[in-house]
Design a protein that fits this description.
Oligomer: single chain
CATH topology of the largest domain: Tetracycline Repressor, domain 2
Radius of gyration: 25 Å
CATH class of the largest domain: Mainly Alpha
Number of domains: 2
Largest sheet: none
Helix content: over 70%
Number of strands: 0
Structural class: mainly alpha
Order of helices and strands: HHHHHHHHH
CATH architecture of the largest domain: Orthogonal Bundle
């Protein structure tokens, strides 16, 4: 695993990923990471508060690698093809760290707090991955698209861990299947959103009118109170 950079943060990230390939995640001590990175505990603490935070920095490193390799020639391809390309480029960026990620996965799965933090980090990353593929992630459907993409990617990653083919044929097949399934679900949800949009709009207008009437009534009561000398 080659060193990514020479900053303190980069050395710490590299050290953690090297150690994660050699031993279980929950047995890695911060003193080991500091020693492997060639930094003091003070320098470590100033750079990161925890192992989980180091993983967050690693995740951003992968994001930057994928986004820097953006292929503009795919602009005219289908949405599914663009997503496929972006996510396969992510697997390519992760390739040097495959053994580390594979070994740490079981330990992370047993830690609910770390899993929750990693899910949020994955959502943040996926927002940029989908944006790179030209997919909108805001609005009512945005959160559903993001979480669905994260779950689908996690399923494909399990296949990737076992895929020994240099061409990643099993990984590509699994990703293609997940994108097909996810596309059908999104289409159904978008159809439902379009069907319920008139009702949602009417309900929103009713609520706004009710709030306006209540505000007007409160204003009238305050005016009456100001004019009543007995109060």
């Amino acid at each position: 695993m080659s060193t990514h950079g020479h900053s303190t943060r980069d050395r710490i990230v590299d050290a953690l990923m090297e150690l994660a390939a050699e031993q279980d995640w929950d047995r890695i001590e911060i003193t080991e990471i500091a020693e492997r990175a060639g930094v003091s505990l003070l320098e470590f603490r100033e750079a990161f508060p925890s192992k989980g935070a180091i993983l967050g920095s690693f995740n951003r490193r992968i994001d930057q690698k994928v986004l820097s390799d953006d292929d503009k020639s795919l602009a005219d391809e289908s949405t599914r093809d663009r997503i496929f390309d972006v996510l396969m480029r992510r697997f390519d960026a992760l390739a040097p760290y495959k053994q580390a990620l594979k070994r740490m996965a079981p330990s992370l799965a047993r830690d609910p707090l770390t899993l929750a933090a990693l899910n949020q980090a994955a959502l943040n990353s996926m927002r940029f991955m989908l944006a790179a593929a030209g997919v909108e992630t805001e609005g009512p459907m945005g959160a559903i698209k993001l979480q669905g993409a994260v779950l689908a990617y996690a399923k494909v990653m399990d296949v990737w861990f076992r895929d020994e083919d240099p061409g990643l044929s099993r990984t590509m097949a699994a990703l293609d299947e997940e994108l097909k399934r996810g596309g059908m679900v999104i289409n159904r949800l978008e159809d439902l959103e379009r069907m319920t949009a008139p009702l949602s709009g009417a309900l929103h207008r009713m609520v706004e009118r009710g709030m306006a009437m209540a505000k007007k009534e409160r204003g009238a009561r305050r005016t009456d109170a100001d004019l009543d000398p007995s109060i």
